[in-house]
Amino acid sequence: MTMTDLELVEQASQGDRDAFQRLLERHYDTIYRFAHRFAGNAHDAEDIAQDVCLKLVDALGTFRGNARFSTWLYRVVLNAARDFARKGTTRAAAHKVYGEVRELDRADAVENQARASWLSEALGALEPGLRETALLVVAEELSHAQAAEILDCAETTVSWRMGEVRKKLKSLAEMVHDR
After folding, report:
1. Are 24 and 53 within 8 A, CB to CB?
2. CATH number (domain holding residue 33)
3. 73-79-80-83 Cα dihedral, nearest 10 degrees
4. Whether the predicted pLDDT of 67 surpasses 90
5. What pTM value is reported for the model?
6. Looking at the structure, do residues 73 and 16 belong to the same domain, yes or no?
7. pLDDT surpassing 90 at residue 24
8. Residue 11 forms part of a structural domain
């Protein structure tokens, strides 16, 4: 004997797994077809249909029988599809922002690499005493006193050398900028 949708809903609402299974088997094609028409592609339709099937377990308790079960089910699928679309819009916006951030990061990395390359070349063009001092103070972040001890010179010499390094780097940067 074939049970009506209403009978299956009543039994499924009371925890009858077989009734729930038969209800899903009877209406899954409708759920999927409507979800596919709404979403426009199989992948999203599968996600929506799966979401409906999961929500249906709890939602069956809200079915009052005032309308046909299929009418009520269409509303459930429509709401799930709308929710999915809203999440998709949020997801798409998040992906877009993430893509923009990654692009900015790449641009920053390229710019930083260009600056580092320029600085390396510029330091390479300095006379050895200035280059060594700059590497110790700037790259190694040592104090003038620490650099002076390593270079076996006076702290004032390190300070003077760093002044010269700044002047030469500024001059090189201006030459590059004027090109």
Report:
1. yes
2. 1.10.1740.10
3. 180
4. no
5. 0.51
6. yes
7. yes
8. yes
| Residue that wins the pLDDT comparison between 179 and 152 | 152
Handedness of CA 58, 61, 66, 69 (dihedral sign): positive
Helix 69-124 with 155-178: angle, nearest 10 deg: 110
* CA 170 distance to own-chain centroid: 39
For residue 145, the enclosing domain spans 126-179
Q: Do 14 and 74 share a domain, yes or no?
A: yes
Which residue, among 121, 133, 143, has the nearest Cα to 163 in the 3D structure?
133
Q: CA-to-CA distance for 116 and 138, rounded, in angstroms?
A: 13
User: Which amino acid, residue 44?
Assistant: D
Task: Give me the CATH number covering residue 153.
Answer: 1.10.10.10
pLDDT score for 61: 84
Please, which pLDDT band fits residue 163 given cuts at 50, 70 and 90?
very high
CB-CB contact of 158 with 137 (8 Å): yes
Mean pLDDT on 87-109: 72
Q: CA neighbours within 13 Å on the CB side: how many for 57?
A: 9
Q: How confident is the model at residue 19 (pLDDT cuts 50, 70, 90)?
A: very high
Note whether residue 95 is domain-resident: no
Structural domain ending residue among the three candidates 88, 116, 148: 88
